Amino acid sequence: MSLSTRWRAARSARRRGTRNGRSDALLTVGVMIGIVAALLPVTRVIAPGAWIWGALALSAATMATGFLLRRTRMSAIGISAVELALTIGVVTVVFLRETALWGIIPVFGSVDQAAGLVVTASEEILYSAAPMVPTPALSFSVVGAAGLFTIAVDHIALTARMPLLAGVALFTVSLIPALAVPSAVNLWSFALLAAAVLLMLRAETRGREPRGGRASGASAVAAGIGALALVATLLITPSLPQPGPRVASGSGTAGIDASLSLGQDLRRPEQIEVLRMRSTAPLPPYLRVATLSEFTGAVWEPDRTWSLPLEGGAAFGDVETGPGIEVADYSTTVEITDLSASWLPVPFPAVGVEGLSGSWNVMPLNRTVVGENGATQGQSYVVETRVPEPTLDQIRAADANPDRVRDTASALPDNLPEIIAQTAREITAGTTNDYDALIAMQSWFRGSDFRYSLDAPVEQGFDGSGADAVAAFLEVKSGYCVHFASAFALMARTLDMPSRIVVGYLPGVNTSTVVDGQNVRSVLSGQLHAWPEVYFDGIGWVAFEPTNSLGTATRFGSATDAAQDDTADPTPTASSTPSATPQPTRSALSENLDTPNASVPLPLQRNLAAFGWGAFAVGMIALLAAPGVVAELRRRRLLASAARGDAVAAWAVVRDTAADLGIRVAGSDTPRMLGDRLVRQHGVDADAMSVLVSAIERESYALAGARTASRPLPGDGGTERGMLAQAAREVRGQVMLAASPARRSIALVAPRSLVLGLFPRS
Q1: Is 591 buried (19+), middle (13-18) or exposed (0-12) by CB count in 10 A?
Q2: CA distances (Å), 593 to each of 242, 322, 518, 597, in order?
Q3: pLDDT confidence of residue 270
Q4: In this structure, are residues 675 and 689 in contact, taking their beta carbons and an 8 Å threshold?
């Protein structure tokens, strides 16, 4: 080769390197923009916080590392390994440094800690309502998942050079929050993601096309079409019908929103029967589904506590009461008709549930029962309850003691509006015990000054349960159960009484059916309800009913005179037992769980966690091995066709092998061009390649009659039909042998040809 020829070749190589470098830079920028756009919708599920900046920073560092390492021509597996090490190191330093060696190197203790965080995050996702508080467990899971997802997208877009497939992955991740929390599509996030995918596609085509020329004009036209599509999406989509309020799966089937966002459910025009119930209790019990103890100032958060598998009544524990407090046993039968939810409606305090099918867990702290999503549909079960029934004197002598419950049941935000505490002091002035103070507040809310309304809150702009909404509610004195319950609970906390809110169902209405002497009651979807509870020493959590014109007010009678009524309260008369929901008491197990520093041994949960990690590992191994297995099956099919004289199948084996090893296979390459390159640069035997090139050229260009001719070729004297498969095997083996071990490993584990082979060749 002459000096001028080598100089021109070197200059051409530099130009290609420059184009490839620019293409990689644009691809890296496009992928990073796509990751930002894909993560933005997650803020609807998890409240924004440090996690979003951590995830974006880790993704940016991973993409920058991959871009720089590609400039050094490091192997693809080496780049992915460095990116993985970076992700593990960052996550370890931020979340696992207490158990890591020197605070940066993860050890077995770090793995156990990570497993515990994943289990905790899973429970928080199962039991919480959106937007969830970004706890350390959730932040660890999201940031770690973002790092792993970035590595995968980086490999797909820049190593495998398949930006369209990377775009599909980005769109899939961006849609997950919309499926978890149904809401309107974030158009700007969608537009940003679409623009990122267009940029990625343009960057990839720019790296392949010659400099200037008609291809650039075609790209400009494609970019213009994409831009017009985005503009049309932004202008037309808002005018399309928006999805209706959240309902569970199934036509006409109701669901449960445990986040106190009950307004849309209660205002829904259609009313369907969600369940039927009957009970041996003297008064029909309310049915609870979730409790909310933590108040952030803006929302009430569902409890996140330990759960145990439901096995008879052992998971609930016993009901403990103080000396002299009577406890009554009742049985309630519930039949779900049209309700698809994770939370099981149960009376309180439950000590056992019989008749359920499927897998269910119990949260002993609040005696709620949780299963898989939609697991309630079609269930029929019996709930046993043990209800403490103190007398009026006993509950007046009991204190609403915040020291006996978790701090979250007493905490108040720093910026609580003054009207809440001031109103509580005014209403309870003159009372001498906690119970009378709470009864005074209940009577005030149920008095003539307040009005129950589903519309007034929306008109006033405070359709929520936060501190500002409660302050507005106390001024206008009009709202629905969420406002009454939230105001009552916050006012109780300002008086140093622990409180929480319960979401569930009212007892429904009587039907004409009687079974075993018990009236069957029908509960409708519109009877979804919220009410407050306050904790009393020796009695437990006592429910109150402040919502005006709904339910039955809670009152206790004296031991000698049942049915003492307060003439100042227009609510129904009281009896010797609670006249609203049963008054719950904590069990011995929940007593341990109810302290911040409690340590309850849960070997079963650890075993389940270990089993889950083992199953995850097996699944990941199977997932990683699947592409290689599928590619091997495809290769055997092609070789079988080649053995029958199929030249296209034999040449497909060569092209697939080259693509798997990262050898450039341009669409403009003729078989002879690719064959010559493999012979010169990758050590392929010229005779074997000649057999394959001659066969594919004759198949492509010869007349139809000539294609069927079977001509002897150099070799062992066999025919072309017998030599095609052998030549394809030889070429594949020689190309694989010439590649580095890392390249061969990638070709076997993650064959690019598997994706390329899904599309028909022209």
Answers
A1: middle
A2: 43, 19, 36, 9
A3: 63
A4: yes
Buried b (16+ CB within 10 A) or exposed e, 14-42: eeeeebeeebbebbbbbbbbbbbbbbbbb
Q: Which range, 22-26, 195-199, 635-639, has the best average confidence (pLDDT)? A: 635-639
Instruction: Tell whether 482 and 336 lie within a shared domain.
Output: yes
Q: Domain containing 70: what range?
A: 10-239
Residues 6+ apart with CB under 8 A from 343: 256, 258, 289, 290, 368, 369, 370, 376
For the chain, the first-to-last Cα distance in angstroms comes to 36
**Per the domain annotation, does 254 fall within a domain?**
no
pTM, to two decimals? 0.49
Structural contact between residues 381 and 350, judged by C-beta atoms closer than 8 angstroms:
no
Cα 283 from Cα 552, distance rounded (Å): 10
Report phi then psi at 163, rounded to 5. Answer: -65, -30
Segment 156-185 shows an average pLDDT of 74
Burial 567-581 (b: 16+ CB within 10 A, else e): eebebeebbbbbbbb
Q: Quote the Cα angle for 423-429-434, to 5°.
A: 95
Amino acid (1-letter code) at residue 132? M
Whether 554 and 618 map to the same domain: the answer is no
Preceding peptide of 302 cis, ω within 30°: no
User: What is the average pLDDT score of the chain?
Assistant: 75
Comparing CA positions, the residue from 83, 144, 152, 86 lying closest to residue 117 is: 144
Cβ atoms within 10 Å of 163's Cβ, excluding its own: 27
Name residue 287's beta-bridge partners. Answer: 505
Q: Is residue 153 part of a domain?
A: yes
Do residues 405 and 492 share a domain?
yes
CA dihedral 551, 554, 556, 561 (to 10 degrees): -40
**Pair (166, 288) in one structural domain:** no
Give the contacts of 575 (CB within 8 A, at least 6 positions apart): 282, 283, 555, 557, 562, 563
Assess whether 204 and 117 both reside in one domain. Answer: yes
What is the band of 732 on the pLDDT scale with cuts at 50, 70, 90? confident
What span, in angstroms and rounded, lies between the C-alpha atoms of 257 and 255?
7
Question: Is 447 among the domain residues?
Answer: yes
**Structure token pair of residue 67:** 């871009």
Average pLDDT over residues 602-620: 52
User: Stretch 236-258: mean pLDDT, rounded?
Assistant: 44
Same domain, 618 and 594: no
| CA pair distance 166, 56, nearest whole angstrom | 17
Whether omega for the bond prior to residue 584 falls within 30 degrees of 0, making it cis, is no
Q: Is residue 606 part of a domain?
A: no
Last residue of a domain, one of 546, 567, 600: 600
| Residue with tokens 């119990």, as numbered in its chain | 362
Give how many domains the chain has, as a whole number. 3
Per-residue pLDDT, 667: 67
Answer yes or no: do 157 and 221 share one domain: yes
Q: How many CB atoms lie within 10 A of CB 249?
A: 10
- 583 in the same domain as 451: yes
Q: Is residue 250 classed as helix, strand or coil in its secondary structure?
A: coil
